[in-house]
From TrEMBL:
Organism this protein belongs to: Oncorhynchus mykiss
Origin superkingdom: Eukaryota
Gene Ontology biological process terms, A to Z: early endosome to late endosome transport; endosome organization; endosome to lysosome transport; lysosome organization
A Pfam family matched in the record: RAI16-like
Name recorded for this polypeptide: Uncharacterized protein
Any single Gene Ontology cellular-component annotation: FHF complex
Length: 101
């Protein structure tokens, strides 16, 4: 969480080139390789943890370009042929503990 808050703060004041590179790094270095697989774990505890972290990240981001990157990841990224959005919607519509968090 501290790293994301730091990136958010740097992006707010950075040169546009640095901003663009940092946003790309968050997408390609964190969202795709870390959050993508984490959001598709099969155990309930792992699903709850990854979904909760994603929710926390989205609530704490204030920089527009970083928020756009997270939204692009949710709407466009595919992991094992399923979009992140489809995975999240499936969880919401289920009767599991994940849907009540």
């Amino acid at each position: 969480m501290n790293s994301l808050e730091f990136c958010n703060a740097v992006i707010q004041v950075a040169h546009p080139l640095v901003r663009r590179q940092l946003v790309d790094y968050v997408h390609n270095g964190f969202l795709v390789p870390v959050m993508g697989p984490a959001l598709h774990k099969s155990s309930v505890d792992e699903m709850i943890a990854s979904t909760t972290y994603l929710d926390l990240f989205l609530r704490s981001i204030t920089e527009t370009s970083l928020l756009k990157t997270f939204l692009r990841f949710i709407l466009m990224h595919r992991h094992d042929n399923d979009t992140i959005l489809d995975t999240l919607l499936t969880r919401i519509s289920s009767n599991s503990r994940v849907s009540t968090m």
